[in-house]
Each structure stands twice: as C-alpha cells, then as structure tokens.
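Action item from last meeting closed. Structure (352 res):
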C-alpha cells in the first residue's frame, strides 16, 4: 500500500502545482492518473497549443507548461501511479482514506484532492452522415502536432477558445485557414476574437459566420467541405480542404468518482470556496472538476484553488500546529536555471 500525506487524483497542471504548494508545507504528495504520463489534457490532447493567461508568460505551449511544472516539483519528489484510474474510496475509522485503482493498487492518505480536470471525456462531434469515413483521414478533433498542417488548407469549426486559439496559431503555419462558426458572436476571450478579426483584415485568415458545415466529400480522403450560410438565402459553397477540425468542446464524465458520495452539480463536484473542500471532510476538489458560484475553468484559477487546499490540508494533518505564511523568495527551487538550488526553507514559519 502506498502511503502519503495528500493523495492527488489527476496529474494535470492543477494537480502538479498542488505538489509544489504542499511541498512548501513539507507535505508529501502522490498522484494517480489514468493517462500514461503526467500533464493531463495539456500533455495528451494539445501539447503544442499556446496558452496566453499564465502569469509571467505572454505565451507558453501547453507541453512546455507541463515540463516547467514537473521541474518545479522535482525537489519535492512526488510519487506517481500512472496509467491507472482511481476506482473506489474507503474511509477508515481514523478518518483517513484508502483509494484503490482499477488495477488494484491501494493508496492510503489523510487527505484526498481530486484534480481530475474534466474527468474522462470524448470530443463533441458534428452530426454529419459520413463523418466516420474521414476520421484520421482528414478529420481530427484535437491538434497534437501543428506541423501536420504546415502548408495545408485547414477548416476549423467552433466558437470557443480552442477554435479561436488554433485559428490564430495555424495562420502562420497552414497555407490557408478558414474559421466557421454558427454565430457572429464568439464565446472565447475578447483578445482572441480581436486577433482573429485582425488576421481576417490582413488576409491571413478566412472567417465565415454565421455558417455551418453540412457535408464532407472525397474519394479516399477528405477533399472538400460543403458550407451553408445561416440566413434566409441559405447560400451553399464548397471549400477545397486538406483538413477539417471541429472544435466543439468535450463531453466530460466523472467516471467512478461520481459514485463516491460527493455532491455533484452538472457533472462537477460542489465545493466550499473557503478551502475547496467537498461535502466529505478530508476530500477536496480543485481545478476544472469542481463547481461553485462564479467558477471559471482557467488553469490559473486551479493554481489558486490548489494553494488554499494545501493550507487547509496542513491544518487537518497537523491540528496542533500553527503557522504563518512567509515569502516564497526566502529559499530557491532546484532546476530553474540549470544550477542546483535548495528547496525553499523558511517559506513557512511554524509556531508550536
């Protein structure tokens, strides 16, 4: 049985940053993730996707963010159980928990932090009769390597951040990028909407709204898409393309965690914003997996939630100790500039 102070379910950015915050408090962490590597969706689905809202980084690729987080927590030596899904949880008489994976690995900890992102998920697909014919043959639901689209004709459909961000990113890689959305208004960040409009004005991106894809064509691979304008005239046009990427989001599922007796609302775990604890004392939920009034599904919000969760966890694990947070600049963290540094020492002043 694997024993630790905080058992983190989900090794995405929020879960990884929780390791750092726990390490500052001298709490050990172990992470469980169904994926074969750490990083969550950032590593598995879009490692080359640029992220623009990480403080201090005007732009950073999702995969690079994961690499930086892994380097940041290296000195705290977290444990990992990868390629296994958290299946069951049992609360012991002393208030601690045993979490068992689908492969039978048991983990024991006084604190469980669920950082499972969107949970298990599958892409939302457009309702097109012959869609399956072109899957992985011109149609893709996520972008792992942008170089696949270099000098290619690409059509992206969607109105959220992913559709906007990838349209902007591929404008400098593909020979032609066309963004199609059912509405004139977009759901993404205003700055991204403005960048798309600017690229359109510069002739670097085609924007067709309101419109939708109603057909796919091609002998052995995708060769063109049929677009219909959403208007009284219902004008239709064929666009010759090499790739069609519908980015309509993901259909999340909590999986086995949904059966743990936690309070669920709209497929997310309800928490108290004081410390992001669930209705079961000792079990927390941080990042995209949780919900509360005013919730924003942003990585930086997950970082904040992880920080407060660790403070609460420290108090539960050490109820007889008080502490005062001090500056995280007192010590150093190994590996940032290639030199060996000590982990932060005087970050937390403990008062017995």
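Sequence:
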């Amino acid at each position: 049985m694997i024993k630790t102070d905080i058992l983190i379910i989900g090794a995405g950015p929020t879960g990884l940053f929780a390791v750092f915050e726990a390490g500052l408090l001298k709490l050990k962490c172990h992470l469980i993730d169904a994926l074969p590597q750490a990083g969550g969706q950032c590593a598995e689905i879009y490692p080359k996707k640029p992220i623009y809202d990480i403080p201090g980084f005007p732009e950073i690729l999702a995969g690079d963010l994961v690499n930086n987080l892994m380097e940041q927590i290296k000195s705290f030596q977290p444990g990992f159980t990868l390629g296994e899904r958290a299946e069951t949880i049992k609360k012991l008489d002393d208030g601690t928990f045993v979490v068992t994976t689908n492969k039978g690995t048991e983990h024991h900890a006084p604190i469980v932090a669920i950082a499972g992102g969107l949970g298990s998920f599958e892409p939302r697909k457009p309702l097109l009769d012959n869609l399956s014919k072109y899957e992985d043959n011109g149609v893709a639901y996520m972008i792992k390597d942008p170089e696949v689209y270099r000098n290619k004709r690409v059509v992206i459909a969607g109105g959220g951040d992913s559709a906007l961000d990838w349209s902007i990113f591929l404008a400098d890689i593909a020979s032609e990028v066309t963004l199609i959305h059912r509405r004139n208004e977009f759901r993404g960040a205003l700055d991204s909407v403005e960048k798309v409009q600017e690229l359109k004005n510069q002739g670097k991106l085609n924007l067709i709204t309101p419109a939708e894809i109603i057909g796919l064509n091609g002998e052995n691979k995708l060769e063109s898409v049929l677009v219909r304008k959403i208007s009284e005239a219902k004008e239709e046009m064929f666009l010759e393309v090499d790739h069609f990427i519908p980015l309509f989001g993901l259909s999340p599922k909590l999986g086995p965690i949904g059966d743990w007796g936690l309070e669920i609302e709209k497929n997310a775990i309800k928490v108290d914003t004081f410390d992001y604890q669930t209705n079961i004392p000792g079990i927390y939920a941080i990042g995209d997996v949780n919900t509360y009034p005013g919730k924003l599904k942003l990585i930086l919000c997950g970082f904040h939630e992880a920080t407060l969760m660790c403070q609460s966890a420290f108090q539960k694990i050490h109820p007889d100790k008080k502490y005062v947070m001090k500056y995280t600049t007192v010590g150093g963290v190994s590996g940032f500039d290639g030199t060996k540094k000590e982990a932060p020492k005087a970050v937390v002043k403990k008062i017995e």
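Note appended to the action item: Residues 136 and 221 are 9 Å apart (CA to CA).
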